């Protein structure tokens, strides 16, 4: 399962690379709002990329709960298991 | 830490904006002369950013009706309808709106913002799912926050994406409620309502359409993009505002739902705020009558919008995707947008500066709204000032100019 989360994390970080400046270091601990220079709309656009990549919908209230890339990856894994 | 230190970033951004000239969020007109003209710093200023689509704010019949209602009913209702009671004119206006849309019932709200906030948050309960267009207005997002339902965004104007998200919800409990808009407020693009209504039918969902920018400006009878798209029977709730085409303030929702009246005692943004004052109810009722009986208002705003949109495109501006009473000019960056906006105002044209995160796709925009009341001379004056500023700032693209000219030729051929 840890492997699974790690691969989700890698996918999420890869998607972020298109949206943040080239020299930004992104890790599982990076806070999505705050560390990466994305405004609220840019965060939601990034979430759409994530939804397309993993073929799921992440409800807005879930988005509000997650702070880091790691937490987002766990949320994706949970939603995938629920087949959403 | 100071109480408002959470807004430090915002303070810095506002200071940076104001350093480029004026504070774009604090423009103070000395006098509003007409629906299309004001006085700013002692000079005349053309209004191209006030959503006064039909120019009814100074309409004689609306002002006379408002004065009569003010005299008859007083300056305010001093409370909500459930506490202080309903005035006869509230009921009359609701009947007129329902008749205008050919729906069973209407409910009026004190602002358009509250109409979305109230309707959407009340319709969607704990087990339900709200599916909203990603480019939805802030009032729709805030309604979602107030609702106990699960909230899912679908890609802007993408019926396939909406269908995929609805399919993922199959088998879950609760209703699926789709929310979109007629015309989107920033880029002025229309919702693809035929496709969205078809997904709605196929998946058995409920559909809410906010026609804030399209009431009176679209549809043969002024009933918006739903009328234009021929999907009125598929739309379960139309929401709208009195503050744009109807020239006042307030909002409404209409529906054929048999139990619609129940919402009056369930909808908090309806129950716990003062109802619309008589002067507003009077002018709105008269303005609705104007729209219902004078198709030339809608025709004129469409003509004016199309003219300015095409002319700006032909000058080489990057405009929004289609001509509508909202015409957006895409700026290459925020700094250019701020300079453009200030230069326009210095030369006597007021438009809106729209910056991220209030815009889709992190775009920096100059957002113009066009009115049926704009004269040909006013449109030409605005066009020539915008073009001169565009040239001065070096943002007119000759390639776009050619493309627009070719497109215009294809249309006329």
Summarize this entry quickly:
The complex is a heterodimer of chains A (about 80) and B (about 425). With about 80 residues, chain A is mainly alpha-helical. Chain A contains four helices and no strands.
How does this structure look, described?
The complex is a heterodimer of chains A (about 80) and B (about 425). Chain A is globular and about 35 Å long. Chain A has helices at about 1-15, 40-55, 60-65, 70-80. By secondary structure, chain A is mostly helical. Chain B has 15 helices and 14 strands. Chain B has helices at about 10-20, 60-75, 80-85, 90-100, 110-125, 140-145, 160-170, 195-205, 225-230, 270, 280-295, 295-315, 335-345, 375-390, 400-410; strands spanning about 30-35, 35-40, 45, 105-110, 130-135, 150-155, 175-180, 205-210, 235-240, 250-255, 325-330, 350, 350-355, 365-370. In chain B, helix 5 runs parallel beside helix 6 (about 140-145) and helix 12 (about 295-315) packs parallel to helix 14 (about 375-390). A 7-stranded mixed beta sheet of chain B has the order 4-10-9-8-7-5-6, with helices on both faces. A 4-stranded mixed beta sheet of chain B has the order 1-2-3-12. The interface between A and B is medium-sized, with 16 and 16 residues.
- Summarize the amount of helix of chain A as a percent range: 55-70%
Q: So what's the oligomer here?
A: heterodimer
**How confident overall, as mean pLDDT of chain A?**
87
Major sheet description of chain A: none
- Could you report the average pLDDT of chain B, rounded to the nearest whole number? 95
Order of helices and strands of chain B: HEEEHHHEHEHEHEHEHEEHHHEHEEEHH
Low-confidence stretches of chain A: none
Major sheet of chain B: 7 strands, mixed
Strand content of the residues of chain A, in percent? under 5%
Number of strands of chain A: 0
Rounded to the nearest angstrom, the distance between the terminal CA atoms of chain A is 18 Å
